[in-house]
Design goal:
It is a single chain. This protein has 171 residues and is of the alpha/beta class. The protein is 43% helix and 15% strand. The protein has helices at residues 19-31, 47-57, 75-80, 100-107, 122-137, 141-160; strands at 9-13, 36-40, 64-70, 87-92, 116-117. A 5-stranded parallel sheet has the order 2-1-3-4-5. α1 packs parallel to α5 and α5 (122-137) packs across α6. The protein is globular and about 60 Å long.
């Protein structure tokens, strides 16, 4: 958990091996001051845990769930089928198909079970953390202000560095 406050975001993944990708979601949540919890919840190896986690999430105060999975990538969709909370799916890159299998598994949800699908890998996890913070920010002005500040920093970085060429070496 990010702090002593109750978690607002659940960051879950299908396997411990997904952590190198999903840690980027956590890093963004920490940067923006969003309380979170994180754990492995496997759709295939621990389906009862998945159902319990998803069904209890709203009652425990979570406002959004970020779910990362690779390969068959059933975790985000199965979680979404068991909770009214927004679920953000992060496709984790697989060795065989470079994450395309994960992306398609998460994106191709049947009508009526919504999962917000992000990009494959680090960028997707980073943006999932940011999007989760934006959702939390709808009810938490401190988080909304942190998101606004982050976006202003990104804008200023571009404005401060308009020349795309590498800086000349100092001699």
């Amino acid at each position: 958990m990010s702090s002593n406050s109750a978690p607002k975001v659940g960051v879950i993944m299908g396997s411990k091996s997904d952590w190198p990708v999903m840690e980027h979601a956590v890093t963004m949540l920490e940067r923006l001051g969003v309380a979170y919890e994180t754990r492995v919840v496997s759709a295939h190896r621990t389906p009862d845990l998945l159902f319990d986690y998803a069904k209890s999430a709203a009652g425990r105060g979570l406002q959004v769930i970020v779910a990362g999975a690779g390969g068959a990538a059933h975790l985000p969709g199965m979680v979404a089928s068991q909770t009214p909370l927004p679920v953000l799916g992060v496709p984790v890159e697989s060795k065989a198909l470079k994450g395309l299998d994960s992306l398609l598994s998460i994106a191709q949800m049947p009508g009526g079970i919504a999962v917000g699908t992000l990009a494959i890998g680090k960028a997707g996890a980073t943006n999932a953390g940011l999007l989760a913070a934006q959702i939390v920010g709808l009810q938490d002005s401190a988080v909304r202000d942190a998101v606004d500040a982050f976006r202003a920093e990104q804008t200023q970085l571009v404005l401060d560095n308009p020349d795309p060429r590498p800086a000349p070496d100092a001699e």
